[in-house]
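Reviewers of the previous submission asked for a worked example of the structure-prediction workflow described in the proposal, so we include one complete record here. The input consisted solely of the amino acid sequence. No template or homolog information was supplied to the procedure at any stage.
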Amino acid sequence: MNPGDTELVGEYGYRLALSGAWNEGCPLVAKARDLNPGPSAYYESALALCAYFDGDPQDAVMWIRKTTAPANPNYHVIAAAIYARAGLDEEASRERDWIMANAPKLVTNMRQELAIRFADASNRADFIGSLKKAGLPIPD
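From that input alone, the workflow returned the following structure tokens.
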């Protein structure tokens, strides 16, 4: 009803993307970010995931570096996966260390946490592979 409602457009787009429909959801997230004059860390971290799953690690790195959510454990999880995929080992290690120091239970429950967020099993497996590459001890 209101195409300028950035919260609705962004949330719907992000949920659509997380369901595995990245090509349909990510443009809606980008539109919401472009229209929203407010804080954009939520959109930028979503766009970082969009680039990650689109196979563009450089773009994913650009978006995650724009994201300002240093106290949010999910930000650090996304960053760890992105940096590991991009081959930025020092940055991936820094994120791993933050997660282990500040949210170790998240690592223990990572598979369940990702199952809540990523509907597509292959997306979960891909993301877990990157987190393991970052050095996170994710249980099998």
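The radius of gyration is 15 Å. We consider this example representative of the routine output the project will generate in years two and three.
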